[in-house]
Design brief:
Length: about 350
């Protein structure tokens, strides 16, 4: 009975039928965020084998701020501590993760603010502020630039500068492919990354949450020197795409989600090898993990991949609670991927927690 009641509330939430706060008067400021750690991926434990992944731990994130929630995009810095999260109400959050050894233990120095239009004002149109995806274009999370994908009407990708005060005003738009107008208003630009390496290093890849081709595979776009060209990802089980992330060897990770009334929410992580990515090709990947409501997951929407000093890859995910705080949770999950070769493109990062004082 409890599960049935939860699903009745969760279904409309995943359909974006929930109230979301107005940000017209929001200004950037520090906020309090509490992170309650948990150590088992299975709800209540004991844990199960995750194959090539090792579950490092998770945090249940809460905040008294009315603007905290809806996290749909995620970046993690090379230090594995600094994070930048993007909400689907046109809000960003910066913070630092703390660690107990290798395990996430909390969040400090959280700061939250609104995305700004080209005139420097907060985005107020409820359909136009639906920011769902973010990619680091250059620099770092403290000084650089990002691309942000918007799911609403019209779909768009905008360029913003990063600085000590967070994300600045919108300063440019990325040219989109004509076919991107076929995306549904609530199934649009959900996933975005800039390839860190491989044959398409520096190129943008974006995917619709749900836009099928005639073979019912997922539709995305790769920006080559000649502009955006269509790519596809094999559809297995009608999962939706919620985010993508890349590594410096050209590996692509895809985060997927599925909701059904009788089974609840599921989550899946796929790895696509660099040689499988090409214009006009249907990408296929290896499933690293598939999880359901027996596991400690929620509506997982944000994904980041970070190379560690050990050569492992740190996979970080964050969930979108749809501002439905009584039914859903904001979860931050971290996994280590073990069977990867250390890339030679740049120096490795420090392992999480290696220089952290709690």
């Amino acid at each position: 009975m409890v599960l049935a009641i939860a699903l009745l509330a969760l279904g409309p939430a995943l359909s974006h039928a929930d109230p979301k706060p107005d940000i017209s008067d929001l200004t950037a400021a520090p906020i309090v965020v509490t992170g309650e750690p948990f150590s088992t991926f299975v709800r209540g434990g004991p844990d199960r084998s995750l194959g090539k992944l090792t579950f490092l731990g998770g945090l249940v994130l809460t905040s008294p701020s009315p603007f905290f929630g809806g996290w749909s995009g995620l970046l993690v810095g090379d230090d594995a501590k600094s994070i930048l999260a993007l909400s689907d109400i046109g809000v960003w959050m910066t913070a630092e993760l703390t660690y107990a050894g290798r395990h996430p233990s909390g969040v400090t120095n959280a700061r939250l603010g609104p995305l700004l239009d080209k005139k420097g004002a907060p985005l107020t149109d409820r359909r136009g502020r639906d920011s769902e995806s973010i990619a680091l274009e250059n620099g770092t999370l403290s000084r650089g630039s990002v691309l942000i994908g918007f799911e609403g009407r019209p779909p768009r990708i905008e360029r913003y500068d990063l600085g000590a005060d967070g994300i600045g005003a919108d300063r440019a738009s990325l040219k989109l492919a004509p076919g991107m107008n076929r995306m549904g208003a609530n199934k649009g630009l959900e996933a975005l990354t800039i390839m860190k390496g491989g044959p398409y290093k520096g190129q943008v890849i974006a995917f619709s949450e749900r836009l099928y081709d005639p073979s019912r595979n997922h539709t995305g776009w790769l920006w080559t020197k000649d502009g955006p060209v269509t790519i596809h990802l094999q559809n297995v089980g009608d999962f939706d795409i919620t985010d993508i992330a890349s590594l410096e060897d050209g590996t692509l990770f895809v985060l997927e989600r599925r909701f059904r009334w009788l089974e609840g929410v599921k989550m899946r992580l796929i790895r696509v090898s660099p040689d499988g990515i090409a214009p006009g090709r249907t990408l296929d990947g290896e499933t690293l993990i598939e999880a359901d409501m027996a596991d400690n997951i929620d509506n997982m929407e944000g994904l980041a991949a970070t190379r560690l000093k050990s050569g492992e890859v740190l996979i970080t995910m964050i969930s979108d609670d749809n501002f439905n705080h009584l039914i859903q949770r904001t979860l931050l999950l971290q996994f280590a991927l073990k069977d990867v070769k250390q890339a030679k493109a740049r120096p490795p990062n420090e392992a999480p927690g290696s220089n952290v004082r709690n």
